[in-house]
Amino acid sequence: MWIAVGAGAALVTIVSAVAIHYGNSRVNGCVRKGPNGFILTDDDGVIMWQLAGETGGLKVGDHMKLKGKREKPAPKGGNVFDVVSVAKDYGPCD
Prior knowledge:
- By secondary structure, the chain is an alpha+beta fold.
- The chain has one helix spanning 2-22; strands at 24-34, 37-42, 48-53, 62-70, 79-92.
- The chain is 22% helix and 49% strand.
- A hairpin with a 5-residue loop joins β2 (37-42) and β3 (48-53).
- The N and C termini lie far apart (57 Å).
- 13% of the residues are buried.
- Residues 11-21 have low confidence and may be disordered.
């Protein structure tokens, strides 16, 4: 009985972690034009996201918070963020 409860709890934890990491989320950063569309560089300048999805409301050169889904990395590497909407536009990047 206790083994089944422990195993069930472990499974819930793993599924939750995957859902949080690859589920609906938000990213913040500066939107730029890249060779294949829009890219967003995070606030620390460390992570670069190729933006897909609903990109019509994006403004090049603005610092934005985007709602969407982090996609699993492509085989050739790189991060893809599937934009659902713009959560906030903070104005021009510094």
